[in-house]
Design a protein that fits this description.
This protein has 396 residues and is of the alpha+beta class. Helices cover 38% and strands 32% of the residues. It has a six-stranded antiparallel barrel with strand order 2-3-7-6-5-8. Strands 16-17-18-20-19 form a five-stranded mixed beta sheet, sandwiched between helices. It is elongated, with a radius of gyration of 34 Å.
């Protein structure tokens, strides 16, 4: 068994050890040591990284009761000097202990239990067994930070299962007969094998970033310590840039953004109205140039979207009895086929045949269908075949 040095001293970052076994993990060399300060991934906390004799340690895993140090390159040495990445260790220590405190605050204030914990590369999250409100969320955040700022001592001790249960701790079945307890003095007591600070003050601050409903409960996203500082800086940078864009101060930015969004909505409504008028004018122009009743309108445009074609087709079939075969050369070939009520053509069938020529797909039902394809060079051919089919049925 490997002696897990980090359990006794989470601040130990350098150590000497002997290689007692070698293995291969997913194509990479790995070693087992007689002692290690590297934390193996467990309980939602990721592994430590660092080096063994200068060789990067890319993963640390517990497998079949052994602690595997997965390496970036072979390690021939039998005795090694290990160095744990200090920044990653500190970060995980802050996030993990912050999670303990936040979970206890939710339990204390609103009876919400933490059912899972994930320490990600950017944010940390816990899943609660019930929904919590925004006021409850902020109350738990405040309570957690009060405990952080009180600099309560953190005690770590190993006891028997019975002793832990006598203290009211719910011990996982897989823990065995000895349990490692982590206690934030007078506030939180949990079984845990992770790395934790000597004082709650080392968490720095706990900042809740957001929450959402998740599997009947609530997922809470947060950051602690240095991550919280980085998150505040990033939000400050974004707000400063938005202030420049809106020509507003931090205090007046919400109102400036609201006014801009209202103006944008008005502009979009005016643009939609103008587009509808323009499409009606184009529809009248096309019908005026087309002989016969019902009319057969065939037209191709450059750069029009399928939505533009659909709007024009709608205008055409409502202004006069007609069949509209419309196309556009844009990011690909777009087609919209339509007919007025009461006309006999199989519009979806015509569309399917046309998009088949274009190497694409599309569909519809009744009097309207649309689609497209990538073979722009065959657009005229596809449209010509559709026009011929309509004229043939019309003359039968």
């Amino acid at each position: 068994m490997t002696d897990l040095l980090h359990r006794a001293d989470p601040y130990l970052l350098e150590f000497e050890a002997a290689v007692i076994a070698r293995a291969v993990h997913e194509g990479r060399p790995a070693v087992v040591l007689d002692r290690t300060a590297f934390y193996a991934e467990s309980g939602g906390q990721p592994w430590d990284t660092g080096t063994l004799e200068g060789v990067p340690v890319v993963a640390v895993l517990e497998k079949d009761g052994r602690i595997l140090h997965v390496l970036a390159a072979p390690l021939p040495a039998e005795h090694v000097h290990g160095r744990v990445d200090a920044e990653r260790r500190r970060d995980h220590l802050q996030q993990h202990h912050g999670q303990h405190l936040l979970s206890r605050a939710f339990l204390e204030l609103c009876g919400a239990r933490t059912v899972s914990f994930h320490l990600g590369a950017e944010t940390t999250s816990i899943d609660l067994d019930r929904e919590v409100s925004e006021p409850q969320l902020r109350a738990a955040e405040l309570r957690t930070n009060e405990i952080v700022w009180e600099a309560r001592p953190v005690h770590v001790r190993t006891v028997t299962r019975r002793e832990a249960e006598q203290r009211g701790v719910a011990v996982p079945a897989e823990a065995g007969e000895t349990v490692r307890l982590v206690e934030a003095d007078g506030f939180d007591l949990q079984p845990c094998s992770g790395t934790h600070p000597r004082s709650t003050s080392e968490v720095g601050v706990v900042l809740v970033l957001g929450h959402e409903r998740y599997k009947g409960g609530t997922r809470v996203r947060f950051v602690c310590g240095h991550r919280a500082l980085a998150a505040v800086r990033e939000r400050g940078r974004v707000l400063a840039e938005l202030g420049v864009c809106f020509s507003a101060s931090h205090e007046t930015l919400p109102e400036a953004a609201k006014h801009t969004l209202e103006a944008l909505a008005q502009a979009e409504r005016r643009a939609a109205d103008l587009l509808e008028r323009a499409l009606e004018g184009e529809a009248r122009r096309l019908l005026a140039q087309t002989a016969g009743s019902p009319a057969l309108v065939v037209a191709t445009y450059d750069g029009w979207t399928s939505g533009d074609l659909r709007g024009l087709a709608t205008q055409l079939v409502h202004l006069a009895p007609c069949v509209a075969l419309l196309a556009s050369r844009a990011d690909k070939a777009h087609l919209v086929f339509a007919q007025s009520d009461g006309l006999p053509h199989d519009i979806p069938g015509l569309l399917r045949a046309a998009v088949g020529t274009l190497g694409g797909r599309g569909g519809g039902k009744g009097n309207l269908a649309q689609g497209g394809g990538d073979q722009l060079e065959r657009l005229a051919e596809a449209l010509s075949h559709a026009e011929a089919a309509v004229r043939q049925r019309g003359s039968a």
